[in-house]
Write a structure and sequence with these properties.
The structure is a single chain. This protein is α/β, with parallel strands linked by helices. It is built from 13 helices and eight strands. The strands form two sheets. A six-stranded parallel β-sheet has the order 2-1-3-4-5-8, with helices on both faces. Helix 5 links the parallel strand 3 and strand 4. Helix 2 crosses helix 13 and helix 5 packs across helix 10. The longest helix is centred in the first third of the chain and has 16 residues. It starts with a helix and ends in a 13-residue tail after the last helix.
Length: 304
């Protein structure tokens, strides 16, 4: 009996010291096979040896995966990703996973945590993500016809069923001057932010279960408008007045579990220098060590 208990204790400790797989979801206009994303994965493996890295994709064809960042129904896309992760032979058998979201990929991973969370996410880190939506659509490159086509359809048609069901950026558009339309027609953000009268208790329970939720804001971000959306802050685009997360009903009434996370020291609002998605190896290495190290190394037990 004693020998069995010792074996189980040692096995449990070994499990806690094994790095969890890392799921990465890229942003708008990127694809799962991009060199930059591969470099991030390699750095994660170097920093936390033994880490298995999986880049989320909506197609095994990089070009089609990029197209899906502009065109598609986020509810359907997220359901497909949930099914793919749940069926993955490594991810589905891990005790949990960590998650890293770049820009648009951040709120999509949060949506994954809230709606699916199987495999369960232990720690979620997002960079420059649009957690409180965008109030302006991004500028496109002069020869980026895919981007220009998408943004062209968005302008003036944001709340139509066609746009909300098929153009990705529109599904996290949120303008304080159009809140009634947003609450009625938003296909994605209004739901995962629990902003409608009937709250989804599962969303709150899943998010509040995170060991860490770190949200990085880029100090000089001019791509995401407003940049404070990375911290769930609300910005009046006319006056420029900022209502910080902790003063919003979303927090004070704890619609998503963010207050619960914050009061237990698990919500981290961090700022980094530079423009949108200007990342350094030094910053990423710190993130990997701080939030993705094996549980017991940072003085906590992995909840199984």
């Amino acid at each position: 009996m004693l020998r069995s208990l010792v074996f189980l204790a040692l096995a449990g400790r070994a499990l806690c010291l094994t790095p969890l797989p890392l799921i990465i979801w890229h942003g708008l206009g990127d694809n799962f096979d991009a060199d930059g994303l591969k470099s991030v994965g390699e750095l994660a493996e170097q920093t936390v040896p033994g880490t298995f890295v999986y880049n989320v994709r909506l197609s095994d064809d990089p070009s089609a995966d990029r197209t899906a960042t502009f065109f598609g129904n986020l509810t359907s896309q997220l359901a497909d990703v949930c099914a793919a992760l749940a069926a993955h032979p490594i991810l589905s058998t891990a005790p949990a996973v960590n998650a890293l979201g770049f820009s648009q990929g951040g709120q999509l991973l949060r949506g994954y945590v809230e709606r699916c969370n199987a495999p369960r996410v232990r720690s979620l880190v997002t960079f420059g993500s649009q957690h409180n939506g965008i109030a302006r659509f991004q500028k496109c490159g002069a020869t980026d016809w895919l981007c220009q086509g998408a943004i062209g359809l968005l302008r003036g048609n944001t709340w139509s069923d066609f746009v909300q069901g098929g153009l990705v950026p529109a599904q996290y558009f949120r303008d304080a001057d159009e809140l009634p339309q947003y609450l009625e027609h938003s296909n994605f953000l209004a739901d995962i932010n629990n902003e409608r009268p009937v709250k989804n208790a599962t969303y709150k329970a899943n998010l509040a279960r995170l060991a860490h939720f770190a949200l990085f804001l880029f100090r000089d971000d001019e791509t995401v408008i407003p940049k404070q959306t990375a911290w769930f802050d609300d910005v009046n685009m006319t006056s420029g007045a900022v209502t910080p997360l902790v003063e919003r009903p979303l927090y004070t009434e704890d619609w998503l579990g963010l207050k619960t996370l914050n009061e237990s020291g698990r919500l981290h609002l961090r700022e980094t220098e530079g423009g949108h998605m200007q990342l350094t190896d030094e910053l990423l290495t710190d993130v990997f060590r701080t939030y993705f190290a094996p549980a017991e190394e940072e003085g906590e037990q992995l909840e199984l």
